[in-house]
Hints:
Layout: E1 17-24, H1 30-40, H2 46-59, H3 74-79, E2 86-91, E3 96-101, H4 109-116, E4 121-127, H5 134-145, E5 150-156, H6 165-179, E6 186-191, H7 215-221, E7 235-236, E8 239-241, E9 253-257, E10 263-264, E11 268-272, E12 277-285, E13 288-290, E14 292-293, E15 298-303, E16 314-316, E17 323-334, E18 346-351, E19 354-368, E20 373-376, E21 386-399, H8 406-409, E22 410-414, E23 421-427
Parallel strand pairs: 1-3, 1-4, 4-5, 5-6
Antiparallel strand pairs: 2-3, 7-16, 8-9, 9-15, 10-14, 11-12, 11-16, 12-13, 12-15, 17-21, 17-23, 18-19, 18-22, 19-20, 19-21, 22-23
Amino acid sequence: MSEPTEPRPSTRRPADILRFATAGSVDDGKSTLIGRLLYDSKAIFEDQLESVERTSRARGDEYTNLALLTDGLRAEREQGITIDVAYRYFATPRRKFIIADTPGHIQYTRNMVTGASTADLAIVLADARKGLVEQSRRHAFLVSLLRVPHIVLCVNKMDLVDYAQDTFEEIAGEFEGFAARLNVPDLTVIPISALHGDNVVSASGNMPWYEGPTLLSHLEHVWVAADRNLVDVRFPVQYVVRPQSAAHPDYRGYAGKVAGGVLKVGDEVMVLPTGFTTRIVGIDTADGPVAEAFPPMSVTFRLADELDISRGDMLCRPNNQPSVGQDIEAMVCWMDERAMLRPGVKLAIKHTTRVARALVRELHYRLDVTTLHREEGVEALGLNEIGRIRLRSTQPLFTDSYSRNRATGGFILIDEATHRTVAAGMII
């Protein structure tokens, strides 16, 4: 290991990467929209385009079906629907993007939850001819439940309604009224035609009445750094670094990903669950030492004192600690088709870097994501269903509410026999 050098100011900006997911009803044009973004931003290779053109001709399409750029599974192409979450990557001079093209079918709710759980922004599509349908509302509710901070409603297929302004405004007004019932901090509405490219990358000459940004321009400029919790210091320890080298026989560091707050060299921190305090004497990254760390940086902290710290422990501020406890109230989405969630079921829980066993003590209600109605008295949750439960873990967990910190407020449940992930949870 090289000799530690003078730390430098952090130059990484979390806003350089935008994660966004698509949502909406079946056949609203999600995959076509993503294909259009990739095509118009020149983010696809010639052989990819040639393959899509060949497949389009084989299907009898009279145009290049850009949806095929994301509908990569054979079953998806045959059925003409998105089944799994398709991740795609592209970049512009301003920003890098990670896209999750999520399914619209109700039976793939778990896939949609998976794709949106890490998103900074969600694009909800609505067909201009149909307006808001049940699945549009359902997906809007799900992305609000998952605390996606920015939502863009794209009113697609405007070419099929002659680019009518009144049609767009009617749909926009209806969605804004529905969003007022949800927790939507930032909402933008854009009229587009994914098939023809209107207002996707370039401004549309067919809709001179629309004076807002194109979709790509909005994605490039939306500010997401402020969405991360920079107040509550949270650092789940993932790995203890002990290089046994002659040059640095005493080196000991604690590696992981910053989940909240800003930590600087010299800061006092507390270690949970022991409660001991110490100070940060160094912050190392793959690019060398830095003076401070913040979400979502992956770093290694060197501490002033030799303390008993292991994977699953957490660093925080002495006067700003997470909740420490074994009883958890949470909303969960059940993802297993082979079994159901019932009171009394024993599962493994993975929360940040800590894994424990857990018992489902109560199932309070099942949530109808279409009507937002709470169905009390239910005995179980089935595949793709969402409900509120109470868990008891065998070890204390260091948690925040999901609304305050998605990293320390989220968890997954695992079947210990099969090691399948059976549920995703959001702590209340």
